[in-house]
Amino acid sequence: MSKRQHQKQLEKARAKRRADALQRKQQRSRIMILVVVVLLIVGLVGAGLVLGGDEPPAPEIEDVESPPGEDEAAAPAVDPCPPADDAPEVDSRIYDGPPAADLDETADLTATVATTCGDITIELDVDGAPGAVANIVGLAEDGYYDGVLFHRVIDDFVIQAGDPAGTGCGQEECTAAGFDPEGETYPGYTIPDEESAAAEFAEGPTGGVEYPRGTVAMARTEAPDSTGAQFFIVQGDPITLPDASYIVVGTVADGMDVVDQIAGQPTEEGDRPVDEVRIVSFTVEQA
After folding, report:
1. Partners of residue 218 on adjacent β-strands
2. Residue 67 belongs to a domain with what CATH number?
3. Are 260 and 254 in contact (CB under 8 A)?
4. What distances in angstroms separate CA 261 from CA 115, 178, 233, 249, 255, one per listed residue?
5. In a domain? residue 30
6. Which among 261, 268, 266, 259 is positioned nearest to 75, based on CA atoms?
7. Cα angle: 121, vertex 233, 146; to 5 degrees
8. What is the dihedral of CA 273, 274, 276, 282, to 10 degrees?
């Protein structure tokens, strides 16, 4: 081999080493960028899940996840609800504990939720969830729900009410974490978790629990024993929630057309109806 040929081979080898080194450097850079992105995403998700503080009462912000792929800007093809101008004024109250309910646990309980869109009749399941039903009946008999806004409506999912502030976090203003742990949160107390009909619901196709259309259940946070006053009505057929921890208090017996109409109203940020939909009265009959 001539000296010139040997020199060419050396130059070729050095060029290959430089190329290999550059390729390894680029790979390391890509890996570092990927790690940083993953850490940022984990940090943001973690920040969204932190409720902050452990002092009761827990806020009733939603861990009921909305169905994926919803177009919030899409205007549903339903009739608008009448104006809520005639709804009673909200009598916001903070309680020390659940208001007493005049409840006959052997009776059949029927609740009528009169809304600005129409009436919804609910058969309450006192046998399946006596604690939660007594709680919602006590609040209803005390007029707590009168005038309260349906603050969260999602077509093919749920409609939700029960927060006098109308924010969903139980306070007049919500923070990034959902609520101010130092502030008062409606209704001022929470009730213990209890097993309900949800324990018998079918498993979802990809996990979780399927809540049938027409199910009425109490909202809660991810914290234990965090049920308060907020409730939701399942409008989807069915919907899948993470587990069976949402206490089922009843089933819609009549008025699902009203539920559909409310769920189909145009919404703005936070799934809040553009035009207010409110509860006019919440009455309970025992037979």
Report:
1. 231
2. 2.40.100.10
3. no
4. 11, 28, 13, 22, 10
5. no
6. 266
7. 65
8. -10
| Position 206, amino acid | T
Contact in structure between 239 and 211 (CB atoms under 8 Å): yes
Task: Take residue 178 and report the two structure tokens written for it.
Answer: 């959902």
Give me the sheet containing 118-124, strands edge to edge: 150-153, 158-161, 231-234, 215-218, 248-254, 118-124, 109-115, 279-286
Q: Quote the number of domains for the chain.
A: 1
Read off the tokens for 68: 């994926």
120 located within any domain: yes
CB 140 within 8 A of CB 100: no
Dump pLDDT digits (tens) for 17-66: 555 555 655 665 565 555 444 444 434 333 332 223 333 454 453 545 55
**pLDDT one-digit tens code per residue, 205-217:** 999 999 999 999 9
In terms of residue numbers, what domain contains 273? 50-286
Is residue 43 situated within a structural domain? no
The structure tokens listed for 69 are 């792929």
Evaluate whether residue 25 is within a structural domain: no
